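2.7 Reproducibility. Because tokenized structures are sensitive to small changes in the input, we list the exact sequence used for Alanine amino transferase8, including any N-terminal residues retained from the expression construct. No trimming or masking was applied before prediction.
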Amino acid sequence: MAGVVVGDVGIDKAIETRNSSNSDYRRVVEMNRSKQRLDSVMDGLVGLLKVRVVRGINLAYRDARGSDPYVVLRLGKKKLKTSVKKRSVNPIWQEELTLTVTDPSQPLKLEVFDKDTFSRDDPMGDAEVDVAPLMEAVSMNPREESLRNGAIIRSERPSARNCLADESHVCWRNGKFAQDMILRLRNVESGEIQLQLQWVNFPPGPGPAAATTR
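Resulting structure tokens (single pass, no recycling of outputs):
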């Protein structure tokens, strides 16, 4: 009888060992799959563009009581949007959206919509942002210790080739390159959007201009 008990213990131990091995194998397989998914996402990635949607200014009315605006950002096939602000033509968002960048030459496209519950959302204008000035400033790779906080690296003026409502500056602020801008919306009777852009290199190293030459 004792021999049977010993045998059962041996069988249980073998089963436990096998289950543990299977669990380890599944864990390794899942780790490999996760790595493959990450590699797929990172393939061709040049950097990250952080866009802070600050506010809207004098946006168009789409309803008698105002509008319920939200902002959509597009970069290539990537799309992000802000929250909806109820009954406001001067909404404050202060929301940061981060887009992955694989082609630095692509413009950032912005659209504003009025949220409707029972019908299609109404367009409230659009604009495009050339991110080249910001990326070129980052690519200069200046010595951080030589830059004072708030230093202007370069400036862009409004022209027929851009949607700027006022002069825009790429600045060194709190240890980072940032560009504030106010965009005049197109294809609408009125409206402007204030943004702040920030570039993050990925992987760390040469700036985005170096990536465009590969």
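Residues 35-42, 209-214 have pLDDT under 50 and may be disordered.
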